[in-house]
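MODEL INPUT / OUTPUT PAIR
PAIR INDEX: 1
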Amino acid sequence: MKTQNQQISLPILQEKKVLLFIKREDLIHPFISGNKFRKLKYNLLEAKKKGHDTLLTYGGAFSNHIAATAYAGREAKMRTIGVIRGEELRTKWHENPTLAFAGRQGMQFHFLSREAYREKTTSGELQKLEALFGRFYELPEGGSNSLAVKGCEEMLTSRDLQFDVVCAAVGTGTTLAGISNAASSEQSVLGFPSLKGDFLKEDIRKFAFKGNWNLQTEYHFGGYAKVTRELIEFMNRFKQETQVPLDPVYTGKLLYGILDMVKKDRFKPNSSLLAIHTGGLQGRIGMNMKLKKKNLPLIQL
């Protein structure tokens, strides 16, 4: 599947003599976009190969993975079950835009307390789920496994090997591992985590077999799903100037980080950068609900 690389033209890029392109993986599919499409591709094939008719996976209230799995399952004519973090959502999931969308695709929900959710992959919990739902193909939270890495390796094509640096947002690290594996030995791969801390390196090393990657850990804006007025204003300004929509959890932080590094001369003049747009735009509606309650600027949709 081909995706377009869109060149970004901004004064700071011209001033610093840096070329920036965005790989529009968000345009792959209207509902299963970006890295979610890539992660699900081979997992769906494996599930069908093993004779499964049910997918079971995990996520939070605004999970891109939950929404994508629900739609992909419907397209593949498979039953989908979402194990959702937060018992308080049991009676009001219809009010949540992500879960309401997944529900419309036919996904069944199983809500767990945060304490129980932490134990969700233990043998005891899996047995309980099998007793409730029967035999299923289990997708890890975020869809992250070796088959997902295989799918993410397909993000880069031969024409992308011309770039000096490839940049991507990091959640579980699966996408970055796939990109690292597909990149050439001359390319540098930079990951921009949306979570605090440096612990992701061990997770990435499980799947990345090259040493061509590094993490830029200073652009998390407080941690996973945390946002600030500065980030939202940047995203809105970026969309106005480039017509590229960003999401607040991943790609907003990614592009903010890249352009901040450009300003600080952390890329050599005449460098060419490729940023991977991993989708996740469905989460903007739910984030706007939170922003409205906090009287913060809303994301322009």
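PAIR INDEX: 2
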Amino acid sequence: MTTTTAPAAGAVAPRHHSPVRRPSLPRLTVVELRKLVDTRAGRWLLITIGLIAAVVVTLQLIYAEDADQTFANFFVPSLLPVGVLLPVLGILSITSEWSQRTALTTYALVPRRERVVTAKLAAVMVAALASVLASLALAAVGTLVASAIGGAGSWQLDGSLIVNALILQVTNVLIGAAFGLLLLNPPLAIVGYFLLPTVWGVLGEMVRPLRGPSEWLDTSKTMEPLFSSDALTGEQWGRIAVSLLVWLVLPLAAGLFRTLRREVS
């Protein structure tokens, strides 16, 4: 005979919890974007980037010839100082987890570290795209002011310059992020980012056998055609690809390998 036992009085039936969904990549990217402005260093760096771009446009309004006060001439010069500081933003985005000792919390909430790294890379890329939009907006303001005070005020701008600017700023910030992944220390990564390419550039100028390779490996030379509205040749694109392989792809791959294997404490 089969008998069943009635549940005891007052017993609580077990609850079935729905599985916890992992956060999506867009959500993680939004979180990483917030982190860029949550820290004092990141917030002031973003403010500094905007101020420098505004100063460049203002100086052109004051000192440039009237004929040179055009939309293109306001836009292109603002890219260079912004491009210098964007890699620092990429470095801080990656290394802040370790310098501020939040990596344990971050990787406990999102155990798959490659998803966190991907979100960080996406966040700094969004910041780079936003910097190009900011440069365009400041160039537009400069052109309006130039038109009002008697400057040329020409709005002509080759669309390829905008595409090149996006490529330039995105690759700049990703190179910084790659150095951050590789070294995982803010001061060391910042010094390494600025020192190593500079030393290579100096050696390429001073040592004759290195002059040929320098034309393919010195990013200050390979990326320079991006500032021009002329169509890039196949060789110029090849030089850009080779230099990015050395300064972006290899450090990024090695840094990702190190980040995924490093013990969090």
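PAIR 2 NOTE: The mean pLDDT is 87.
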